[in-house]
DNA sequence: CGATTCCTTGACTATGCTCAAGAAGAGTGG
DNA sequence: CCACTCTTCTTGAGCATAGTCAAGGAATCG
């Protein structure tokens, strides 16, 4: 465990300038000089595996993070003991920002599988941002984008119909996969039905039935965690709740 | 309408240093010198009345806002035409940050009654933040706090039971009233049942029934928009879903 | 290959939505 | 100041959607 593994060291040495996620991540839009100043504070942590926590609720704000490989979820445990999933964090997406408001993390970040993160010590980041306006601007932007994702979550949860929430979830995930350069219509879900349910404010059975329904209707093909989107337009239409292509629910008028 | 009203002009001239909301607002924790640099960019807009929009979805990011008097709601219109309420903004709370991620506003901000706002042109704010580290820090903090409120919204919407959502809403609102120095257990709701419902992902009838139920159970006293919280502890307990003081729902075992 | 976890599907139930009508407030003008 | 109107709120009855409980099947891991 403590013995140095050459391959890992090589990866740890990788810089932002070489990173495939550069376009998506904090360095986006920064010039070479600025990036090198940013690189000075970026730390690459040792790889994590399924279930590992990056931080827990109550931990003081030390750093913000971006997954370079693998997917994370952030979860909040309600007083009644239920686990609510606040978000899923794909490679290139900044997370851990929940501690900026109060100085303490409000949630826990957990790796959904093997993962690797870049850690950006917050105090360093903020002080460099003072010196490098383009980084400050970029930092505000990514924070804003993170807030946009939270907003999308609110948007999903505001939908009354479970089918709408599920369609929005898949549609949004597909979009995000495209953005990170991965197939948008054929992927393996990194999270369980239960985790999806806890993200959507539903129970896992409802999510499962929702998936089956989309399969029956020929909109997706699903087998376990493998998902293929066959009809993006129809999926998008379901997102709007009202009738799009197929009727969203067999009403008495149809039957 | 266009004639100058002395009283209003006097108010418009008021500075951050004199503002009663100083402790809550952006200037919190800044010294006199820094505040004066901030004041240079703050603009006080002419008063708004019920229904007036401050910005609309699609508008470019010009400024961020803080209500100095009155309450605002931010709303998003879904493709199917429904209005979703994203948040209510009390005096001292920064809003309009939704445009930071993309450069465009994602939602519309509407005054719920007579209101007055301070407008902070974003470009100015960001450039001063570069020069004044304490403002940068403060700016990041308030953005973080705004994200915390969004997170609280997610938390509310994740609850399955309507009664929990309603209890959390009242409990949270009460908290925020206390923070701005107003009575936390006796207030007039600035928003309608319908707006509450659209915030909670429910319909107005459900909200109305929820309020009536809390009244019956002796936890609150409600008459129209006037609310008095009689038993904060019980309200907090309902927030947790599980049984607290009174049973949350009369089950057959009880009747 | 066995054990465990995860997913699917069914039957039943309950919560909250729909539709509907009436009461209470707020605003307006005589 | 009161009558009128319009909006907002309350309450009721019935129904549909999603939750609960339960069991069996698929997939994954050691």
Topology:
Two copies of one chain form a homodimer.
Chain A: H1 6-13, H2 32-39, E1 43-44, E2 53-55, E3 63-69, E4 72-77, E5 83-89, E6 94-95, E7 108-111, E8 116-121, H3 122-131, H4 133-158, H5 162-179, E9 186-188, H6 193-200, H7 204-216, E10 220-223, E11 226-229, H8 232-239
Antiparallel strand pairs in A: 1-8, 2-7, 3-6, 3-8, 4-5, 4-7, 9-11, 10-11
Chain A binds a DNA duplex (30 and 30 nucleotides) through helix 7.
Describe the structure.
The structure is a homodimer of 255-residue chains. Chain A is globular. Helix content of chain A is 39%, strand content 19%. Residues 1-8 and 243-255 of chain A have low confidence and may be disordered. Chain A has 2 domains: 9-153, Jelly Rolls, CATH 2.60.120; 160-239, Arc Repressor Mutant, subunit A (Orthogonal Bundle). In chain A, the strands form 3 sheets. In chain A, strands 1-8-3-6 form a 4-stranded antiparallel beta sheet. In chain A, helix 3 (122-131) crosses helix 4 and helix 5 crosses helix 8 (232-239). With 255 residues, chain A is an alpha+beta fold. Chain A has helices at residues 6-13, 32-39, 122-131, 133-158, 162-179, 193-200, 204-216, 232-239, and strands at 43-44, 53-55, 63-69, 72-77, 83-89, 94-95, 108-111, 116-121, 186-188, 220-223, 226-229. Chain A contains 8 helices and 11 strands. At the A-B interface, helix 3 and helix 4 of A face helix 3 and helix 4 of B.
Spell out the key features of this protein.
homodimer; about 260 residues; alpha+beta; Jelly Rolls; Arc Repressor Mutant, subunit A; 2 domains; four-stranded antiparallel β-sheet; 11 strands; globular; disordered N terminus; disordered C terminus; DNA-binding
